[in-house]
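As the work plan foresaw, the team has encoded backbone shapes as discrete tokens. One protein thus recorded appears below exactly as we store it.

:::
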Amino acid sequence: MLWIAITRPEIFPGEAGFIHRLFANGVDIVHLRKPGATADGCARLLDGLSVADRRRIVIHDFFELAEPYGLRGIHLNARRSNVPDGWQGHVSRSCHSLEEVKRHKDVCGYVFLSPIFDSVSKQGYASAFTGLTLQRASSEGIIDGKVIALGGVTPDKIGYLRRLGFGGAAMLGCVNNLAALPEKKQTEVLRNIKLSF
């Protein structure tokens, strides 16, 4: 299963180092989601990352940075819902219903389906799917290796998501809460999370 981390909406001091530690300790892909930042701010953040780290970044808000920085790809959402003219690289997309998954997954590298569980980072953002609904979607092949679970994902839920056939899990709150911890503790917790995958 893929382990994807999604950044906080705003840039914070030391974030480039934090992103590097995510990769160094098992995260496969980082989604740079910065609606609270500027393109210049995101460019400065990317300047602080190695070429190897940038190749594992998918950007949400400033698609114009993807090619010059050699990023893995772009992510479509409500703010940016169209692929830019001429873009030939990786595309992923946010989906909030099984109908959206069916409509978009075949033309994307993968899609996020959310919220699967009650959110860790957003108060009042509750799961949109019952266990029965997810089981049915799995048995019908709607949930498969191209669908990434998002929303309230914590390490204890990875086994359940694997059994449903999700291709990976994306974490926002669970991972970004680690940024306040000392580096050594971040590494320890990240390595423990990776064991769940």
